[in-house]
Amino acid sequence: MEEQKKQRIYSAIQPSGMLTLGNYLGALRNWVAMQDEYECIYTVADLHAITVRQTPADFRRQILETYALLLAVGVDTSRSILFIQSHVAEHSQLAWLLNCYTQFGELSRMTQFKEKSISHADNVNAGLFTYPALMAADILLYQADRVPVGHDQKQHLELTRDVAIRFNNLYGDVFTVPEPFIPKTGARVKSLQDPTQKMSKSDANPNAWVAILDKPDDIMRKFKRAVTDSESCVRYAEGKDGINNLMEIYAAVTGKTYQTIEGEFAGKGYGNFKLAVGEAVVETLRPIQATFADLMKNKDYLQSVWRENAQKAEPIARRTLAKAMKKIGYIF
Ligand code: TYM
Questions:
Q1: How does pLDDT run across 301-320, given as a tens digit for each residue?
Q2: 164 in a structural domain
Q3: Annotated catalytic, 201?
Q4: CA-based nearest residue to 23, from 61, 72, 95
Q5: How far is the CA of 23 from the centre of ligand 1 (A)?
Q6: Exposed (0-12), middle (13-18) or buried (19+): which is 77, by Cβ within 10 Å?
Q7: Is 143 found in the same domain as 76?
Q8: Which structural domain range is residue 138 located in?
Q9: Which residue has a Cα nearest atom 9 of ligand 1?
Q10: What share of the chain is helix, strand, coil (3-state, %, to 5)?
């Protein structure tokens, strides 16, 4: 009997600074889990990262560390492709084409663009504006069926679908129209200092976010200082953003339901709860940190892996780009 073709997954992450617990629970954990069932292609999105100014030496290190960290969390290159975006030139090429099929009005509505134009007011460059067209190119090049992301990327994914449908309507079936895949828990990890905002590595207050590579003491300190409320009752409810966020994190790392968590901490106050969340996070991250440290001892090995993986990704990307260009009318 013919084996059914596996669906294809595509996702990417920016190498800007240290990856956070939000990246891990909202995205990377799913990247790893999905390898059992799907054909997965994952990318370090270094082209996206220069929409904000990067210092060359730091940027170089961040790309390397992000690649190693993705291996450390469990992306397995014997089953999946893990490459660095700038190594496959087709991303930039298709992005240009898709820029011409994406409307100014659509890009103007992107929440992330609006937010970043405020937080980086001195550098509102064209790349920041057209960033979603590059993201669409990433996904569409690989004809991905599903895209695992945290909730904050949903709008970009909807735009990707709109652009794919528009292109297909003009030229026939060129691109697979991808479905978002957003996990139930962990998709919206919030800042520990302002739980109405998402946890982000660009937050100036280091106590607001936990890095995957933070030391256990730092993780515990950040959870102990996490903002809560004055009710002193661990329950998931409207208006309790801080506690809701801690419950979501605890549920995501332990697999417990909110009901179980409420029972576990009934009458115990927030101090105990914060310690438990911190400890559960430390234990989740411990093996990842150990594997990361080992990988970073062997840069030649890392380089051989990313080169080999770019070579696997490139033919897939080349095929899609050629197909799109032919349809538009380019000659070869
Ligand atoms: P990036 O690098 O900001 O984040 C990578 C992934 O982590 C998720 N994430 C979160 N999830 C839950 N809670 C949080 N606080 C949190 N912070 C981040 C993001 O949703 C994302 O899934 N534009 C993308 C990278 C990208 C991409 C792509 C993604 C480029 N091309 C193609 C998918 C497909 C970005 O900046 O993600």
A1: 999 999 999 999 999 999 99
A2: yes
A3: yes
A4: 72
A5: 7
A6: middle
A7: yes
A8: 8-187+299-328
A9: 23
A10: 60, 10, 35
